[in-house]
Write a structure and sequence with these properties.
The complex is a heterodimer of chains A (262) and B (621). Chain A has 262 residues and is of the alpha/beta class. Helices cover 35% and strands 25% of the residues of chain A. Chain A has one domain (4-257): Rossmann fold (3-Layer(aba) Sandwich). In chain A, 44% of the residues are buried. The chains are: A alpha/beta (262), B mainly alpha (621). The A-B interface holds A 61, 63, 66, 91-96, 99-100, 102, 104, 106-110, 118-119, 121-123, 151, 154-155, 157-159, 168, 171-172, 175 and B 495, 497-498, 500-508, 511, 515-516, 519-520, 619-621.
Chain lengths: 262, 621
């Protein structure tokens, strides 16, 4: 947004999902997904409950690996052109590149500082100056620095709900990921806290890509450049947000957006 | 009707809850009632102890007890000094005598046959005797020829030994000449060695004899005061009986019975001994006693002056240094007793604070003594605390690590195996664990402590098979199921959201476990450890069987090796002694006091565990 010439539409997508089927055991959760997420853009995933939005999001950083029977049965997920299921992919490195923010804020029961520094620490960073810098930068990016700079050693669980969620965002971006996955990050927050986070998402798009799952269609309109609509495990439509909300190509999309969905 | 039914069910559940609470309260009240009388009874005993004059004797006797320790150190210094000089000659003598005994033993049968034959009257046929003699000779010769002879002897000497030994017979009474020579050589050597250390030996002897006159006098005094004390005890026993009789007479309805009871009470009436009068002759000898003490102190100071500062062997030097260090303190303590004796007053009342102090800070638990019973609580507390700490130090890493593994790394099948197995430990009766401690672990630890390359460990090689470490190991085993289950619960209760967040940041499994899960579960783990401690403090059977039951404060001065000393415990002492004491005596009440303190400790530990959980459960900014 800030520098259009540096993000040509022709550049390779940061995340690409090719003909992917995904299933939990014998139950197919996602079917034949095709999706290319552009660099430095915000992509929203919308759709009714149980359509597979969160599952799709969790495919991108392989969070589904922990469910024993869950696996990609066909196709591939590529991050920066690399298939993330390849043998030589280091999961910790992948997750360093692909950060994640959860529906419910989940700061560690540690100090504010230690929460933000955690990602760097687990990747082997112990230099205090580097950590201090990274913590400050991340907290500034999450618009928390001014509020919290005087009590970085305070316990994170003493913060308000909105602050906790922004702290989780700061924690996720402290490792400077290329993609930030957000799974309904505002669903538990009040409108003011939601607004603050939406502002952050706008700013983030200058530096990296954001993929956000949301139930709130107004939010999708407000924050995203592209929107993908999923229904029953299938990707129904994927197009620039404005286009989708003004002139949806598919009947299903139209009825969902209008709320006449059955 | 429906409402009534509900009310009924409600009160049924409420009454069940209240029964438990009431029972607990009753237990507490009972404990308190039995224990509360202790301070009064003990105070009374201590008053007699003072009035009869036993305390006066103890003023001297107590510091004098050190003398034994010091003189045994000196004796050891003497032996260790002399030993290297006489060692080789002694070894030669002993080896030769050993061979003689071996040969005699291996030819027991013919020798005994011959001896019996010679004793027979009338005398046996000479030809038969000759035959027996020949048999002895031939077997002895054979044994002497084949006997293994140590390399302490030269080839020549070996030959001579064999030759002389082959002539052994029950009829020859004199020693083989070689043995006589060896004995003589040893005596010469021993004398020489003793001459070399004359100074040390003389100082040691002087020191050993120094308290003789003081001791003699003290035992005379002790006899006197003990007589008074026993008279007093008898009086109080009779008096108690008399009071009971009088009370019975009061309520008796039958006139004759009443008269009988009163007569019986009258008959058992005795006088309380006159303490002052009895003590007067003892007090008169006070100055004499002081003189003896001064004399003793002077003579050991003198002995110390002539005592060499170093020995020729390191062991002796070490012992002498210890004696030089402790002796002045001993002298000081003895001289201090002089003023104490002077200031001592038989009439001074025993304050309740003194009694409380004597219980809670008393360093001796001495019961069924012919002199005076003391109920000092410290040795038992020390034993309990040390054993519990050993158990916790061993059990904590084991159970916490096992819990972490089971909760975080184990596969479902492993979990199904590990959890029931660890929880099964709880099902082992503690008396069975006691067996294991006595028969298996004790020997194992002792054998291990005798392995040469382990001798560097503190306390090795150990003296006692039954000791605090042994008991601690078994209690650790008993605490593991509790601690494991609680720690595992604590780990289980860590919210999944923390684990998600850590995983999403690229942490490895290990990092997630040790940076997020374990810290988040720490309060629960701490509570698990504390509850384990509570379990261990209250455990009785194992410590009673395995801890060694020596009532003494562990000697912490020996370094970390003190854990291999035997000890007694709060729980063990109750279990061991309560069955044997007479109901209502001071000893009985003292045991109840111990029970009360034990109860208080358990409450405290459990309270701490709750506090820890509450403190960390909902952290505030």
């Amino acid at each position: 947004m800030s520098n259009p010439s540096s993000s040509p539409a022709t550049s390779a997508p940061i995340v690409e999902i090719r003909d992917m089927d995904f299933s939990y055991g014998s139950k197919i959760a996602l079917h034949d997904i095709q999706l290319a997420v552009e660099r430095r853009r915000v992509t929203a995933l919308i759709g009714p409950s149980g359509c597979g939005k969160s599952t799709l999001l969790r495919c991108i950083n392989r969070m589904n690996d922990r469910v024993p029977s869950a696996r990609v049965t066909r196709g591939a997920v590529l991050v920066k052109g690399k298939n993330i299921h390849d043998e030589d992919v280091d999961l910790t490195q992948l997750r360093k590149q692909v950060g994640m923010v959860f529906q419910k804020s989940n700061p560690f029961p540690k100090s504010i500082y230690e929460n933000v520094a955690y990602g760097l620490r687990v990747h082997g960073e112990n230099n205090v100056e580097v950590l201090d810098d990274a913590v400050e930068r991340a907290l500034r990016s999450a618009a928390l620095w001014d509020e919290l700079k005087d009590r970085l050693q305070a316990h994170a669980l003493g913060l308000s709900g909105g602050q906790q969620q922004r702290l989780c965002i700061a924690r996720a971006i402290a490792t400077q990921p290329d993609v930030l996955l957000m799974d309904e990050p505002c669903s538990a927050l009040d409108p003011i806290a939601t607004l603050k986070i939406e502002e952050l998402i706008h700013q983030f798009a200058r530096d990296f890509s954001v993929i956000i799952v949301t139930h709130n269609m107004q939010q999708a309109v407000r924050v995203s450049d592209y929107t993908a609509f999923l229904h029953l495990g299938k990707l129904i439509e994927f197009s620039p947000t404005e286009l989708m909300f003004e002139r949806p190509k598919e009947k299903l999309t139209e009825s969902y957006l209008r709320g006449t969905f059955s | 009707m429906a409402w009534d039914m509900q009310k009924l069910i409600r009160s049924f559940f409420a009454s069940n809850a209240s029964v438990t609470i009431i029972v607990l309260l009753l237990i507490m009240v009972f404990l308190m009632r039995e224990g509360a009388g202790f301070l009064g009874t003990y105070k009374h005993e201590l008053e007699i102890y003072r009035k009869a004059g036993l305390e006066l004797c103890d003023l001297v006797d107590r510091p004098l007890a050190q003398h034994q320790d010091l003189s045994s150190k000196l004796r050891r210094a003497v032996t260790t000094s002399i030993d290297p000089l006489i060692q080789s000659t002694r070894a030669r003598r002993d080896a030769a005598f050993y061979i003689k005994r071996e040969i005699e033993q291996s030819t027991t049968l013919p020798r005994e046959a011959l001896t019996q034959a010679l004793e027979k009257t009338p005398a046996l046929d000479p030809a038969k005797l000759d035959q027996l003699r020949r048999q002895v000779a031939s077997e002895t010769a054979a044994a002497a020829a084949t006997a293994a002879i140590s390399n302490l002897f030269s080839a020549e000497e070996v030959a001579r030994l064999r030759r002389e030994m082959s002539l052994l017979s029950p009829e020859v009474t004199e020693m083989p000449s070689f043995l006589t020579e060896l004995s003589a050589a040893f005596r010469v050597m021993d004398k020489e060695a003793k001459q070399k250390y004359t100074q040390l030996i003389e100082a040691s002897d002087l020191f050993e004899e120094a308290p003789d006159s003081l001791r003699a006098m003290l035992s005379e005094l002790k006899e006197d005061v003990l007589f008074t004390k026993e008279a007093a005890m008898e009086y109080f026993t009779l008096e108690e009986g008399r009071q009971k009789l009088l009370k019975a007479a009061e309520v008796a309805t039958d006139l004759k019975e009443k008269a009988d009871l009163l007569a019986e009470a009258e008959a058992s009436k005795t006088e309380e001994p006159n303490y002052q009068e009895n003590l007067a002759p003892v007090l008169e000898r006070r100055e004499e006693l002081q003189e003896h003490i001064t004399q003793y102190a002077d003579s050991i100071t003198e002995a110390l002056k002539t005592l060499p500062k170093t020995g020729d062997v390191p062991e002796a030097t070490k012992l002498l240094a210890e004696v030089h260090e402790h002796m002045p303190l001993h002298v000081q303590a003895m001289r201090k007793s002089l003023t104490e004796i002077k200031e001592w007053q038989a009439e001074k009342p025993v304050s309740i604070i003194t009694v409380v102090g004597a219980f809670f800070f008393g360093s001796a638990w001495l019961t069924n003594s012919s002199w005076q019973d003391f109920f000092g609580f410290v040795p038992l507390l020390a034993g309990s605390v040390v054993i519990a700490l050993i158990a916790i130090v061993i059990a904590t890493p084991l159970s916490v690590a096992a819990a972490i593994y089971t909760n975080q790394f184990a596969s479902d099948r492993e979990k199904e195996f590990i959890k029931p197995v660890i929880e099964f430990i709880q099902a082992i009766p503690s008396v069975v664990l006691g067996f294991i401690g006595i028969s298996l672990l004790g020997d194992l630890i002792k054998d291990m402590s005798e392995i040469p390359w382990l001798s560097g460990l503190p306390g090795f090689p150990i003296q006692e098979r039954l000791n605090m470490f042994n008991a601690g190991c078994l209690l650790a085993l008993m605490a593991i199921p509790t601690m494991f289950s609680l720690a595992e619960d604590a780990l289980n209760n860590v919210p999944q959201a923390y684990i998600d967040a850590s995983d999403a940041l690229g942490a490895t499994k290990l990092q997630t476990v040790f940076r997020v899960i374990v810290p988040a579960a720490l309060s629960g783990i701490a509570a698990a450890v504390l509850l384990g401690l509570g379990r261990v403090i209250g455990e009785t059977m194992v410590v009673l069987l395995v801890a060694g039951n020596r009532i003494a404060i562990p000697d912490f001065g020996v370094g970390p090796g003190f854990i291999f000393q035997p000890a007694h415990t709060l729980t063990g002492i109750i279990a061991q002694e309560l069955g044997e004491v007479s109901r209502g005596s001071a000893h009985w009440q003292a045991l109840f006091m111990v029970g009360i303190v034990l109860f208080a400790i358990s409450l405290l530990v459990n309270g701490c565990a709750r506090a820890v959980v509450r403190r960390f459960e909902t952290p505030k900014a």
